[in-house]
């Protein structure tokens, strides 16, 4: 079964774009477009970067950096969760051994 596609309009740096996506992805796509627009507006307003192409590249780099930092933090948290589960299993075993003695 094919997913239902929907065409939506997004605005980035006051430019309108038509983008097609699955219906269930519309909210995420709108949020992503809004985030990109905010990033590009902030970069443009800083006055340090001229041109929409350069703003897009800088915003893309900033967003990629955010993503990679979040992935790194997620890996740390997943590692911590794995370690805590292991410690919990060891404690359960220890408590079980105490009950049988």
- Number of continuous helical runs: 2
Distance between the termini: 59 Å
Total strand segments: 2
What Rg, in angstroms, do the CA atoms define?
Answer: 23 Å
Alpha-beta content class: alpha+beta
The parts where pLDDT drops under 50 for at least 5 residues are none
Sheet of most strands: 2 strands, antiparallel
Walk me through what this model shows.
- This protein has 101 residues and is of the alpha+beta class.
- It is built from two helices and two strands; from the N terminus they run ββαα.
- Strands 1-2 form a two-stranded antiparallel ribbon.
- Strand 1 and strand 2 (15-22) form a beta hairpin.
- It is elongated.
- It starts with a strand and ends with a helix.
- The mean pLDDT is 93.
Main traits of this protein?
single chain, 101 residues, alpha+beta, two-stranded antiparallel ribbon, 2 strands, 16% strand
Layout: helices, strands, pairs:
Elements: E1 5-12, E2 15-22, H1 26-46, H2 52-100
Antiparallel strand pairs: 1-2
Helix pairs in contact: 1-2
